[in-house]
Specification:
The chain is of the alpha/beta class and 268 residues long. The protein has a single domain, classed as Rossmann fold. Helices cover 46% and strands 13% of the residues. It contains nine helices and nine strands. The strands form three sheets. A four-stranded parallel beta sheet has the order 1-2-3-7, sandwiched between helices. It has a three-stranded mixed beta sheet with strand order 4-6-8. α2 links the parallel β2 and β3.
Length: 268
């Protein structure tokens, strides 16, 4: 941090399943706290901390939630959401107690090029584009082009209010519509079978147990993923649009750019 005027803290351990959760908390919570302490010590003048809509509350009726929707730690499903909730709370505490000059942004579900790993989001798009998605569940996500999220960070740095949260989102879509849009781009038939959540949950437990037994990577279906899918993750970016001048491009562009990049890089 020495010599830096500004800081964008965008790094995180983003996985829906981890065999040893302590490592995720070390990165997302302790790592954030130590980085913010270093920024304070070095006299950094402006900080943008990347949180997530996963730390926000959800409306029971499925209508879009925002930065003020009530939520508690008990509402967080899984270690990723819990770790991000605790990390954001630590940033807010340091803003209040230590005068940390941080603005918080809460991206929704970024889609687009350069998802190298890929993230769980990118893998969903990749599997759908490759025709490896045999069925779907009744859920919904807010999809946004990753470039719009990046531009939202710059707007938050320039115009955001210290200590304030800003949702950086795009369009609210059901999972069925998401797969339909990807199918239109690739020509791959979309999944036609809708499975009930309670049918998939036992399969997720079996896959996680097998992954722990053999020491494998993240299962295709996880318990936390199924539990999250029972809720529609719909959000509004109204505050960012009004206060920052934030905007987003059509969601079809995000899917097209993601599919094109995966194809160029040989992921298929």
């Amino acid at each position: 941090m020495e010599g830096c005027e500004g800081l964008f803290h965008v790094a995180a351990d983003y996985r829906l399943w981890v065999p040893k959760p302590s490592g995720m908390y070390d990165v997302n919570v302790t790592g954030t706290r130590e980085l913010m302490k270093a920024a304070l010590k070095a006299g950094v003048q402006r900080i943008v901390y990347t949180s997530s809509v996963d730390t926000l509350g959800l409306n029971p009726d499925g209508t879009p939630a925002d930065e003020e929707t009530p939520v508690t730690l008990d509402d967080m499903i899984g270690h990723y959401k819990r770790s991000k909730f605790l990390a954001e709370a630590e940033v807010q505490r340091m803003v209040a107690e230590d005068r940390l000059p941080a603005v918080i942004v809460n991206p929704s579900t970024p889609v687009g090029p350069r998802d190298i790993k890929p993230t769980p989001t990118g893998r969903m798009v990749l599997d759908a584009a490759a025709g490896r998605m045999p069925a779907y569940v009744d859920t919904g996500l807010n999809i946004v082009h990753v470039d719009d999220v990046a531009l939202g960070h710059l707007l938050a740095f320039e115009k955001g209010v210290v200590g304030r949260r800003y949702v950086l989102g795009g369009e609210n879509l059901t999972l069925k519509d998401i797969f339909g849009d990807i199918s239109t781009i690739t020509g791959t038939p979309p999944p036609k079978i809708q499975l009930p959540h309670n049918l998939i949950l036992p399969i997720a437990y079996l896959l996680e147990g097998w992954a722990r037994w053999v020491g494998g990577g993240e299962p295709r279906v996880t318990v936390d993923g199924v539990r999250l899918a029972k809720k529609r993750m719909f959000f509004s970016s109204g505050r960012a649009e009004t206060e920052l001048g934030y905007g987003h491009r059509p969601v079809e562009t995000a899917f097209r750019d993601a599919v094109a990049w995966f194809k160029e890089q040989g992921y298929f």
